[in-house]
Design brief:
alpha/beta, Dihydrodipicolinate Reductase, domain 2, 12-stranded mixed β-sheet, 6-stranded parallel β-sheet, 15 helices, 19% strand, globular
Length: 494
Amino acid sequence: MTPFTRRSFLKTSAAAGLTVFTARSWAQVAGANADLRVAVVGLNGRGRSHLASLGKIKGVRIAAFCDVDTAVLERARATKVDGKQPYAAVKTYVDIRELLASPDIDAVSLATPNHIHALHAIWACQAGKDVYVEKPVSHNVWEGRQLVAAAALTKRIVQCGTQIRSGEGLQQAVAWVRAGNLGKVTAARGFCYKRRDSIGKADAPFAIPATVNYDLWAGPAPADPIRRRRLHYDWHWLHVTGNGDVGNQGIHQMDVARWFLGEKGLPRGTLSVGGRLGYVDDGDTPNTQVVIHDYATAPLIFEVRGLPSKTGAKGDGAMDKYRGVGVGNVIDCEGGSVVTTNYFAATAFDRAGKVVKEFKGTDRHMQNFVDAVRSRKQADLYGPIEEGHVSSALCHLGNISHVLGQAAAPADLKARIKGNAGLAESVGRMTEHLAANDVDLARTPLTYGVPLTLDPKRRERFAGEFAAVANPLLTRNYRAPFVVPSLEAKIAKV
């Protein structure tokens, strides 16, 4: 059964195995001066932010809401703006397939959980809709590449929610550094020092709320019983549906770091050191982690810390900072560094720590998406899907290294990483941080991930010692009918 048989207007191409809408332009669909009719899919968290951003853009009309939880839908319809309820009459859907079958929708903004981003975005492309999809654009490397292929095959505008790329400040800072104003980049670092408390350990599964269509919520993932209190957020901390903070916050900072490096593809290799430490709960993604990507230009190093600066720390000083950064980036260069502490501003320092230049900007990401939908020019996008896919893949590489790794005693771990100065320095600070949180690494050791090597001859595949166990983790077993289609090979045939 195809996703759209409830509304049979879609016709599947036998040759390509994909519905292709190449003949339709924006002008033919709604007219360059007509309202862009957008549906918001997923109305918790980021979905509410999408709604707020879209509501400020001239010529955009919120035409529909979609969420698998009817309680969330009703809350969204009751949203007040300037004392009014502008969405009280908006049409609502529980099943995105019914929404996508509607000819009254031009574009969708997707703020669903990670494990269903790629499939929803591919379905939307197949249905002839343009797409704004939250980060990470995928739950695994393979399906991200299929989304890139879907966008190319259908000629849809697909923007990744890496909104930092839209700010003039970061755009200028990247251009300034890559022009050589601070010399060569020596390390591109990203940080997510953000408090993440235990999600609890359940003695028995929790009941699915009556308002939730759990089959649709689970989508490609196993529809297993839920063993966490919060259905709608704590999926982040389970590998089966989320990607931990490497894939939650980390994609932003790794995307920025890769942007500064000027690297377009995946690294030569990846290694993770980390664990879920400081409490025992039903989560299985690391709350403390260092991931290093081996790029030819310079190493890209990303750090996660979910515990406070020390046991009992509370308030504004609860979390660690690295050179003033809690969530952000530090780009080290031969002649100084660039530091970001918010999404749209950066400061350049010389080697003595003197400020030499400041960069400031604002979030223009959703406006940029709308502008690109109207122009039909992929090159206008600040967060094109290819870039979003590669940065999402960096998150997945780090997690693959971790899940294949083994616990390493402190002395053994230190010996293994001593030859990598950047990794050793980051892990050294991490172990001090854990000690301040009373974590005994002799009893609950860190996991030393497998060192992964990317195959230089085969795109997005592993080579070397761990290829046989790592390559299967580039994708997943999909639960029918929520199966991501294999599309990459079809591009050459179109």
